[in-house]
Amino acid sequence: MRLSWKLGRIAGIDVFLHPTFFLIFLFEEARTRLPLLLAMFGCVLLHEFGHALAARRFGIETADITLYPIGGVARLTRMPRAPGVELAIALAGPAVNLAIAAGLYLSLGVFSTAGMGEFFAELLVVNLVLAAFNMIPAFPMDGGRVLRAMLSGWLGRARATTFAASVGRALAVGFGVYSLLNLDLLPVALAAFIYMAGGAEEAGVLAEERRRGGSVEGVDWSAPAGYRWVQTDQGVWRLAPASAASRASSWGGVR
Predict the structure, then answer these.
(1) Which runs of consecutive H residues, i.e. helices, occur in the chain?
(2) Cα(220)–Cα(34) distance, integer angstroms
(3) Distance of alpha carbon 217 from its chain centroid, rounded?
(4) Which residues cross the membrane (predicted)?
(5) Which residues contact 53 (CB under 8 A, 6 or more apart)?
(6) How many Å separate Cα 94 from the centre of its chain?
């Protein structure tokens, strides 16, 4: 059963709010700067729709978007394999924040006349920070996906994912330790999320590449003619006749 609360449906995509979102109100600044906080998460939501709508242009739908205290997550129905497509989708989110910042900059004169110049100037800075922060090469953040996409043509998807995930884990550990020493718990949670999510996606990509008959970690996973690799319920990989593997796939045993 889903724990998140549905906020609505926009452009055919369900938007949810995770219960942990309210942990952000444990911080006094979040309570005293509520209008800016809500505006910031509105920009985070637009950032995620940037990813979702860019993915839709390439035939990839988005199952839903969920807001957490550490940001938002757009859950795509499948991840793009083509490096160029992944690059375009990854850059779409930060591009939205830059577009918002540009719009705010051009409108600051109007907002200042209305007595709201300071608020929108802060929101402009927030969007610049969101764009810059998301471009840090910490997989699976946007910058990490850009790194993976740029390396995929050279190293192959599996090795590029492993490299990007390793960089992401190293940055997450450094960022997490620094934040912990400064008793800043929200960044610690973000670092933990990056570390675990990157590892989980790396494992999924490596398993997918094995199923496709690619070479991973220096091991030749190519299958003889008429055979393919399948994974048993115990997680063991074995060769099986292609026809048998196809039958298993139709029952959900092999994906």
Answers:
(1) 28-32, 34-57, 83-113, 117-134, 142-155, 157-181, 185-211, 242-250
(2) 55
(3) 24
(4) 7-27, 33-50, 85-107, 119-139, 160-181
(5) 11, 92
(6) 12
Question: Nearest 5°: phi and psi at 243?
Answer: -65, -40
Can you tell me the distance from the alpha carbon of 15 to that of 92, in angstroms, rounded to the nearest whole number? Answer: 18
CA gap 34, 115 in Å, rounded: 18
**Torsion from C-alpha of 249, 216, 213, 150, nearest 10 degrees:** 90
pTM above 0.90, yes or no: no
Question: Could you tell me if 20 and 4 are in contact, meaning their C-beta atoms sit under 8 angstroms apart?
Answer: no
- Angle value at C-alpha 13, between 11 and 14, nearest 5 degrees: 130
- Give the count of beta carbons closer than 10 Å to the beta carbon of residue 196: 12
201, 193 in Cβ contact below 8 A? no
Tell me, what DSSP letter sits at residue 236? Answer: -
The token pair at 172 is 């997450």
Beta bridge partners of 233: none
Decide: helix, strand or coil at residue 25. Answer: helix
* Residues involved in catalysis: 48
Q: Which two tokens stand for residue 241?
A: 């006749």
